[in-house]
Task: inverse folding
C-alpha cells in the first residue's frame, strides 16, 4: 500500500517540475542576456547592449503567447528607445566610424576583450574593452593577436568598457598615407583678410619654412597696407585689394590621422558647415569653396584634416598692430578611392572681436 501512495506523489512532483521549474537555454551575444524556459512561462534575464552603447539590465517573466516569442520579439515588448530629435547639421549626417589598434586578451567565440595599444585614445577610457563578435566576420582570432577594431557610438564606462563593434581585421603595418620626410608640399592660395575697427596702417610679415613662389601684392620684406573696417586694403600707390595672397613650397609634414573622410559629391555641403564652425564668414567661405571644390568634388572620397600647430609653425605670421582675433584655417587633404575610418576633429573658432585677421589656405597631399 505504501508504494501505491508514493506513485501519485512522484507524478505530481514530475508535473510540477515540467510546468513550473524553468530550464536554462544559454546566453545570447547581445551582451549576455540569458533565457530560462518552463512549460507555462519564460524568464529572461536581460543583459543587453543598446544602440546607445548603454547596458540594459532587468529580469522579466512572460506568460501565454509571449512565452513563445523570440528574444528579439520580446525585446520590442521590453524596451522602446526614446526618439531623438533631428539635428540639422551636415557634419553629423556623415556616418563617422572610429577605430583603434588593440591586442586580444580574452576570446570565447562570442565576446572579445582587447587592450588598446599605447597611444590610442580609447586607452584613456579603459585598458580593457569588450564587444560582441557574433555578427562580425570570423577572422579566426587568437589571444595575443593585434587587430584593428571599428566601432560607432561611444564607449560605455564599465569594466571592461563596452563598444558597439561593426567590424575588425588583423592589423596591417601599411600606413594610411605615405608622406615621406622632407617631401615638398605646395601651400596653395593662402589669403589674408584684415578687418580693423577703423582705418589702420597695417604691417604683415610671413616667415615660411620653405620658399615663397608667388605673392600678390608683391611681398617686399612684408606687406604694408592701409586696411579699412570692411576689409578693403590699399597700398602706397593707391591700388586696392580684397586680401593679401601668397603661395609657397614648404617642408611641413601635415597630419592626416584625424579629420573626415567625405564623399566627393558631399564635399561642398561639408565645407559650408565646417568653415562656419572654423570662424569664416560667408564671403570668406565662398571664396575658399570656389577655389577648392573643382579639385575635390569629382573624387570618390576626400580625406580632409584641418591643420593647427603644424601649419602655424611652418608659416609664422606677424601682424602689426597685434590683432584682437586671429583665425587661421588651413586644410590638408588627399584623394581616396575608398572610405577610410579616422577619428573626427572637433571644429571650433574664437569669437570675432576687435581687430580681426582671417587667413585660409590648403594643400593637397599626394
Result:
Amino acid at each position: 500500500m505504501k508504494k501505491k501512495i508514493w506513485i501519485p506523489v512522484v507524478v505530481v512532483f514530475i508535473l510540477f517540475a515540467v510546468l513550473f521549474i524553468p530550464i536554462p537555454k544559454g546566453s545570447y551575444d547581445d551582451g549576455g542576456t540569458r533565457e530560462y524556459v518552463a512549460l507555462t512561462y519564460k524568464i529572461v534575464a536581460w543583459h543587453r547592449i543598446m544602440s546607445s552603447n548603454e547596458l540594459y539590465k532587468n529580469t522579466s517573466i512572460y506568460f501565454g503567447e509571449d512565452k513563445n516569442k523570440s528574444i528579439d520579439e520580446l525585446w520590442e515588448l521590453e524596451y522602446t528607445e526614446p526618439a531623438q530629435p533631428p539635428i540639422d547639421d551636415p557634419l553629423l549626417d556623415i556616418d563617422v566610424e572610429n577605430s583603434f589598434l588593440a591586442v586580444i586578451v580574452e576570446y570565447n567565440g562570442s565576446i572579445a576583450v582587447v587592450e588598446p595599444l599605447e597611444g590610442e585614445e580609447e586607452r584613456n577610457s579603459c585598458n580593457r574593452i569588450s564587444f560582441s563578435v557574433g555578427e562580425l566576420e570570423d577572422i579566426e582570432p587568437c589571444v595575443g593577436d593585434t587587430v584593428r577594431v571599428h566601432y560607432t557610438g561611444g564607449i560605455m564606462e564599465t569594466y571592461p568598457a563596452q563598444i558597439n563593434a561593426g567590424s575588425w581585421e588583423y592589423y596591417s603595418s601599411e600606413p594610411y598615407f605615405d608622406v615621406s620626410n622632407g617631401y615638398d608640399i605646395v601651400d596653395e592660395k593662402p589669403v589674408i583678410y584684415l578687418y580693423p575697427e577703423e582705418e589702420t596702417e597695417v604691417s604683415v610679415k610671413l616667415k615660411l619654412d620653405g620658399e615663397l613662389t608667388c605673392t600678390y601684392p608683391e611681398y617686399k620684406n612684408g606687406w604694408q597696407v592701409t586696411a579699412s573696417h570692411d576689409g578693403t586694403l590699399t597700398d602706397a600707390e593707391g591700388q586696392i585689394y580684397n586680401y593679401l595672397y601668397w603661395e609657397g613650397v614648404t617642408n611641413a609634414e601635415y597630419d592626416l590621422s584625424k579629420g573626415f573622410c567625405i564623399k566627393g559629391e558631399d564635399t561642398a555641403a561639408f565645407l559650408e558647415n565646417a568653415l562656419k564652425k572654423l570662424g569664416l564668414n560667408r564671403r570668406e567661405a565662398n571664396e575658399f569653396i570656389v577655389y577648392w571644390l573643382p579639385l575635390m568634388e569629382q573624387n570618390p572620397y576626400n580625406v580632409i584634416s584641418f591643420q593647427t600647430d603644424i601649419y602655424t609653425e611652418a608659416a609664422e605670421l606677424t601682424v602689426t598692430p597685434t590683432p584682437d582675433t586671429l583665425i587661421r584655417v588651413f586644410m590638408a587633404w588627399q584623394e581616396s578611392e575608398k572610405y577610410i575610418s579616422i577619428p573626427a576633429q572637433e571644429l571650433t573658432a574664437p569669437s570675432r572681436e576687435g581687430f580681426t585677421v582671417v587667413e585660409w589656405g590648403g594643400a593637397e597631399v599626394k
Notes: Residues 195 and 248 are 24 Å apart (CA to CA).
